Amino acid sequence: MGDSSPSRRRFLSLAAGTLAAAGAARFLLAPRTAQAAHGTIDPSTDGKLIRSVCEVCFWKCGIQGHVQGDRLLKIQGSPVHPLSNGKLCPRGAGGQGQSYDPDRLVKPLLRVGPRGSEEFKAVSWDEALGFIAAKLDDIKKKHGPEAVALFNHGAGASWFKHLLQAYGTANFGAPSFAQCRGPRDVAFDITFGAEPGSPEVLDISKSDCLVLIGSHLGENMHNTQVQDFAEFVARDGDLIVVDPRFSTAASKARTWMPIRPGTDTALLLAWLHVIVGEGRHNRAYVEAYTTGFDKLEEAVKAYTPEWAAAETGLDAEVIRNTARRIAGAQPAVLVHPGRHASWYGADDTHRERAIAILNAVLGSWGHRGGFFRPSGMKLAKFPTPAYPKAKPPADRVEGEAPFALEPLAQGLRRATLDGKPYPIKAWFVYGTNLIQSLPQRAETLKAIEALDLLVVCDLIPAEIAGYADVVLPEASYLERYDDLLGVSWHQSGVALRQPMIAPPGDAKPGWWIAKELATKLGLGAYFPWTDIESYLKERCRLSGIDFEALAREGFLPAPDKPTVVEDGLALTFATESKKIEIYSEKLAKAGFDPLPVFKRPVGPPPGYFRLLYGRAPAQTFGRTTNNRLLGELSHNDKLWLNAKVAADLGLTDGARVKLVNQDGIESAPIELKATERIRGDCVFMVHGWGHTAKGLKYASGKGADDSGLVSRVGTDPVMGGTGMRVNFVAIRKLEA
Ligand code: SF4
Question: Is the distance from the beta carbon of residue 77 to the nearest atom of ligand 1 less than 6 Å?
Answer without folding.
Answer: no
